[in-house]
Amino acid sequence: MTTMKQLLVGKYGAVIWNPHDNNDSVRLERVQRKFMKYAGFRLNIPCEPHNYEPVATQLELGSLAERKWLADIKFLKNVLDGIIDSPELLSLICLSVPQRPSRSVAPFYVTFASTNYLKNEQI
């Protein structure tokens, strides 16, 4: 049986539908605020108008942006660790392997993008 927390935190396909456009993120945040307002009312959690921190704390629910970021990081880790077996995705990740020792410790690099479309591409 699923608990309320599992339903709230469930992220089926979150990496796929994660918006990279600020307008879409704002719209999703609005949906979450409406949900927290409703949940606070139904669960009798006292909170001031437009301050849903007590509801988020009670439900152990972080911000939407934070949860999306964590889901993306977990997905990347699973691809790199081989838990998600996808050679195509792994080939799209730009790993930085230095030819000689250097002070740079960045494991990834970002390729040059000549258009905004390529710049905002997921991988």
Characterization of this structure:
The protein contains 7 helices and no strands. With 123 residues, the protein is mainly alpha-helical. Mean pLDDT is 75; it is low at 1-10.
What is the first-to-last residue Cα distance? 36 Å
Percent of sequence in beta strands: under 5%
Give me the Rg, rounded: 19 Å
Classification by helices and strands: mainly alpha
Unreliable sequence segments: 1-10
Mean pLDDT: 75
Order of helices and strands: HHHHHHH
What is the overall shape?
elongated
Largest sheet: none
Number of helices: 7
The strand count comes to 0
Percent helix range: 40-55%
Structure summarized in a few sentences:
The protein has 123 residues and is mainly alpha-helical. It has helices at residues 4-9, 14-17, 22-42, 53-58, 64-81, 87-92, 116-119.
List keywords for this structure.
single chain, about 120 residues, mainly alpha, elongated
